[in-house]
Amino acid sequence: MTESKLNQIEEQIKSEQQSISYDIKDFTIEYYVQKYLTNEETEDNELYVPDYQREFIWETSRQSKFIESIILGLPIPLIFVAEIEETGRLEIVDGSQRIRTLSAFLNDKLKLGRLDKLTELNGLKFSELKPSRQRLIKNSSMRMIVLSSRANEDIRNDMFGRINTSSVPLLPMETRRGIFRGKFMTFITELASDKKFTKLCPIDKHFAERREEEELILRFFAFTDGLPKFNLNGIDLEYGGVAKYIDRYLDNQNEVCTEESLERKKKAFFNMLDFVENTFKDRGFGKYQNSQATSRPYFEAIAIGSHLALKSGKPLKTTNLQWSNLDKRNPNKLFQLLSGRYHTHKPDAIRERIEYVFNQLTN
């Protein structure tokens, strides 16, 4: 290789390195939780979870294992955040599940379970520990990498992609396509490419080309068919979690679906799309006008609530939609139902937000 080529390589490396500026900081667990919770209800907290990471997917057993690791003094993965110049806030790029688990534990929203090392802690909450142990946990430190605000959005997005493709190679929907092949999976894929659906359902750039459209549609049918108990062939959403519940639903539908049942589902789905298009104009399934992303909890609430309203045969109320307008400075009931910190996909939370939309459209 020529000397000129080697110099070009070095110049490129230095140029790219200069565009990435970051600090490494150590803070206590108590500090992280305080920065996350203060003003969280109005979405003005200093350390915040971006909308594309709002779903809290860790099950109780995984949360408990993480807390156990902290108590045992085991190494904890770095929290990775990006400093947003316009607001001075810190956007969590990697670590939202950990931060929310810590917050849940310190606020007695998490009861430890299925621990195989510290078995004496099974069934306990934070407040039940000795005060000295509580202080030791709160004063434990975790390291955080802060990507400077000098790094532009392209760099932040690139960092997100690199972190998530290395730590979580495949999202559940990407995995399902390889494992649960069948007639119903093909049906979901076909619906996901419909132009009306893709227009009404903008996908966040972080999930582009990652089968998010199929994920949303599969949830629509799985939660609709699972109401009210969300228990399917031995898998209970409360204890098995969303991924296992949806896996079981998809696997079962591949076996039992018929041309007639698929046609009924297709008709119901497109009736719902027509209603959403005509009712929530300029918004569709976006939280706000001209949204560039679709929140899973919001999609589920609007889509399934609308479907149930249409199915009920009751007169529909579509003139006053003030209840559906979300404003973090003046949070209404729907805003509060969608802003759960810890249990965004527990059965009660799903039911409550779906029923709220249904009641607003029919009562």
Your description of this structure?
By secondary structure, this protein is an alpha/beta fold. It has 16 helices and seven strands. It has helices spanning 3-18, 29-37, 60-72, 96-106, 131-138, 153-167, 172-179, 183-192, 195-200, 212-226, 237-240, 242-256, 259-279, 296-312, 333-338, 347-362, and strands at residues 22-28, 47-48, 79-83, 90-94, 141-147, 231-232, 235-236. Helix 8 crosses helix 10 (212-226), helix 13 crosses helix 14 (296-312) and helix 14 packs across helix 16 (347-362). It is globular, with a radius of gyration of 23 Å.
What is the structure about, briefly put?
This protein is of the alpha/beta class and 363 residues long.
Which stretches are poorly predicted, pLDDT < 50 over at least 5 residues? none
- Give the N-to-C terminal Cα separation: 75 Å
Sketch the topology as an H/E string, one letter per element.
Answer: HEHEHEEHHEHHHHHEEHHHHHH
Secondary structure: number of strands: 7
Q: Which bin fits the share of residues in helices? A: 40-55%
Strand order of the largest sheet: 1-5-3-4-2
User: Using only CA atoms, what is the Rg?
Assistant: 23 Å
Q: What composes the largest sheet? A: 5 strands, mixed
| Averaged pLDDT | 87
Structural class: alpha/beta
Please tell me what the overall shape is.
Answer: globular
Strand content: 5-15%
Number of helical runs?
16
